[in-house]
TrEMBL record:
Catalytic activity: Hydrolysis of terminal, non-reducing alpha-D-galactose residues in alpha-D-galactosides, including galactose oligosaccharides, galactomannans and galactolipids
Signal peptide: 1-37
Keyword annotations from UniProtKB, A to Z: Carbohydrate metabolism, Disulfide bond, Glycosidase, Hydrolase, Polysaccharide degradation, Signal
Domain CBM6 intervals: 575-695
Lineage: Bacteria, Bacillati, Actinomycetota, Actinomycetes, Pseudonocardiales
Matching CDD domains: CBM35_galactosidase-like (cd04081), FN3 (cd00063), GH27 (cd14792)
EC number: 3.2.1.22
Organism annotation: Amycolatopsis rhabdoformis
Every Fibronectin type-III domain range: 485-571
Top-level enzyme category: hydrolase
PANTHER family in the cross-refs: ALPHA-GALACTOSIDASE 2, ALPHA-GALACTOSIDASE/ALPHA-N-ACETYLGALACTOSAMINIDASE
Name the UniProt record assigns to this protein: Alpha-galactosidase
Alphabetical list of SUPFAM superfamilies matching this protein: (Trans)glycosidases, Fibronectin type III, Galactose-binding domain-like, Glycosyl hydrolase domain
Domain of life according to the entry: Bacteria
Length: 695
């Protein structure tokens, strides 16, 4: 539940709870204490025979889930959707109506979850456990769960992290199932608040044994109703918070243990903008994590391209290696079904779903299913595209230096899923060069959106795409090779005597790939069993062209991956150029930080520019420049202009509002012999803060 603004620095993606939802979730009625305490559900109540059969005793989330979620409709200002204020759409009748359509039209395509987001809590019982808002859900949540289960669907629910402010009850509420625990025993003495909103919850102190008992009591309530899925929201580090009060890793571990202990299989997903610094915690304790802020625009439509669909192409990249069976990258709701409500063009709707599918992200619809148009229904029920999502092989970008991008995934059968995107604001041709992603020779191309065979393509495939348009292909090699070529070979570091390289792994048809050889000038210069190595013994200020060849245990070799050329630094290098010694302009400002030289340049983007002159090298060519930068956001992009020639540079952020600690990435930059000028800016968006360049 956050908003992604189009400008600002740390507040570019400010977060706010809708006023209507706040009234429902936060400003609930006074604590209701019934005369007789409501018992916790028993294990027998938790585990219905039907649900045991549905899960078959297997691990959850082996594939990304498909379904529908209420939040896009709750958050929109589209006329008539929320007639009495934000979130007023949410009620039992509307949810059951969506479930009916999901079962009738979409279940056959794999959609099964009906997820109720924020707004269902009306109050808290005498034990601090959530109570359903009876005005919105007069028959209760168990009735809703039973209803959707009878249709072969599953029910999802929602809670915010921490102890809700209203559940605290001045610390006097006992914890169900304990003899001497109260809500005052759950919190820190200073009643510090947590969650991405800081007006929702107290931080729970999990050093107290009462804390796990409380989480278990909440989990048992959900299980007793028959809930199959829980979204825990406002989780940090992430949600653009990162200090000690917003460390919710103990909450996540506690919820993971509690949900398992109920005996009822429940998918467990975290939100929002989870910090990649804690990815091991998220992977070990959840079935997925939102990589970004809300996709919704909180405006008169459900989404807009700029706020915030387009950001996902950059924001997902650092998380791609972490997705897999049991835990998936969550890109948020899929709002592509209704042209009049969605707020984006048909081309944008297709690109939106294409990215979600190639990333194996959960596909959960956010539209009003009573308002779908023919084009939207066609998108959402395209079984070939859904199969790409369900294959569970997230695609990677070949390059993001321009708005014309190619993303690829190698499939288990030797074919390739390839997406072409034109993220620019004008029509453009986009070309996929097969060698870049390890495909050798000719391939049969199939258009997955149009169910059309396109014939043979030899070495490349090009398409003219509209603004924000896309094409999704399956490329099948005509003559499959025994060992595929290494893909996306790139440099990662350099010294005057070495260059470090990395690449995406090759695959063997009959036997596993066991190693790689690196060549320079026709001579083998390194060998490795992994997908990275350092070539040593090089000369300073010298250009080298590298190729990488894979081989299996029988000695069968691949074709060479696409060659790359880099110049080593001078013998006296590398040289560090501090950003604060450059020329900030247009509002860009020097700030203190825990980074090189103790300074950085921030407020870049829009009119804010950083010009760094006199970047000196001895020889012309591509250098592996190390960029030191600071980004507490999900990711930000610069337009880097080198001697008058520009390219895009997205950089991964931390999602935790840390604008003090520097990170580094390696950027290949073509420099001329002598002095060079490098400018950081972005006329249409905010840029990361710059610490230094090392050449």
């Amino acid at each position: 539940m956050v908003v992604r603004p189009t400008s600002g620095r740390t507040g570019r993606r400010k977060f706010a709870v809708l006023a209507g939802i706040a009234a429902s979730v936060l400003t609930v009625s006074a604590i209701q204490i019934p005369a007789t305490a409501a018992p916790a559900p028993t294990l027998a109540q938790n585990t219905a025979t039907q649900d045991t059969a549905q899960n078959g005793g297997t691990q959850l989330a082996q594939k990304p889930y498909l379904g529908w979620s209420s939040w896009s409709l709750e958050s929109t200002n589209y006329p008539g959707v929320n007639p009495t204020g934000g979130g007023s759409w949410l009620n039992e009748a509307h949810v059951l109506q969506q479930a009916d359509i999901l079962a009738a039209k979409f279940k056959q395509h794999g959609y099964e979850y009906v997820n109720i987001d924020a707004g269902w809590v009306g109050s808290f019982d005498q034990y601090g456990r959530p109570v359903v808002d009876a005005k919105k859900f007069p028959d209760g949540m168990k009735y809703v769960a039973d209803y959707v289960h009878k249709k072969g669907l599953k029910l999802g629910s929602y809670l915010a992290v921490g102890l809700d402010l209203k559940a605290y009850n001045d610390g006097n509420s006992p914890i169900y199932g304990t003899t001497d625990c109260h809500t005052r025993d759950l919190v820190y003495p200073d009643l510090r608040q947590t969650s991405g909103w800081d007006n929702q919850s107290y931080q729970i102190d999990f050093a107290s044994p009462c804390a796990q008992a409380y989480i278990q009591s909440e989990a048992d309530v959900l299980a007793g109703w028959g809930v199959d899925f829980l979204k825990l929201d406002g989780v940090g580090p992430g949600s653009f918070k990162g200090d000690a009060a917003h460390d919710n890793t103990p909450d996540v571990k506690a919820w993971s243990a509690a949900l398992k202990k109920t005996g009822r299989p429940m998918q467990f997903v975290l939100s929002w903008s989870l910090s990649h610094n804690e990815i091991d915690t998220w992977k070990a304790n959840s079935n997925g994590w939102r990589i970004d802020t809300d996709v919704e625009c909180y405006c008169d439509t459900l989404v807009t391209w700029n706020n915030s669909v387009k950001g996902r192409w950059n924001d997902v990249v650092q998380y791609i290696p972490d997705a897999g069976p049991g835990h998936w990258n969550n890109l948020d709701s899929l709002d592509v079904g209704s042209g009049k409500m969605d707020g984006i063009t048909e081309a944008e709707r297709q690109s939106y779903m294409t990215l979600w599918a190639i990333e194996s992200a959960p596909l959960y619809l956010g539209d009003d299913l009573t308002q779908l148009d023919a084009y939207g229904t066609k998108l959402l029920t395209n079984d070939e595209v859904i199969a790409v999502d369900q294959a569970g092989v997230p695609a990677k970008p070949v390059s993001q230096k321009s708005d014309q991008q190619v993303w690829y995934a190698r499939n288990a059968d030797g074919s390739y899923t390839v997406a072409l995107f034109n993220l620019g604001s004008a029509p453009s041709q986009v070309t996929a060069n097969f060698g870049d992603f390890g495909l050798t020779g000719a391939a049969k191309a199939r258009d997955l959106w149009n169910h059309q065979e396109l014939g043979l393509s030899n070495g490349s495939f090009s398409a003219n795409l509209p603004a924000h348009g896309s094409k999704l292909l399956r490329l099948t090699p005509v003559n499959p090779v025994q060992v595929s070529a290494p893909a996306v070979v790139h440099g990662t570091a350099s010294t005057p005597s070495s260059v470090s390289l990395a690449w995406d792994a090759s695959a063997g048809k009959l036997a596993p790939v066991t190693g790689y050889d690196v060549f320079a000038g026709g001579h083998k210069v390194a060998s490795t069993s992994g997908t990275s190595t350092t070539v040593n013994g090089l000369k300073p200020s010298t250009s080298y062209t590298f190729t990488v060849v894979a081989h299996d245990r029988f000695g069968r070799s691949s074709a060479a991956g696409t060659e790359v050329s880099y110049v080593t630094p001078a013998a006296s290098g590398p040289v560090v150029y501090e950003a604060e010694n450059g020329s900030p302009g247009g509002g860009a400002t020097v700030y203190d930080c825990s980074c090189s030289g103790g300074k950085k340049v921030g407020y870049l983007g829009g009119s804010g520019l950083l010009t760094m002159n006199n970047i000196k090298v001895a020889a012309e060519g591509t250098y592996l420049v190390k960029l030191g930068y600071v980004d507490g956001d999900t990711s930000r992009s610069a337009v880097v202009t080198v001697n008058g020639s520009s390219f895009r540079l997205p950089a991964p952020g931390t999602n935790d509002n840390d604008w003090n600690t520097a990170r580094t990435i390696t950027v290949p930059i073509y420099l001329m012999a002598g002095n060079n000028q490098v400018i950081f800016g972005n006329p249409s968006d905010s840029v990361f803060d710059v610490d230094q360049l090392t050449v």
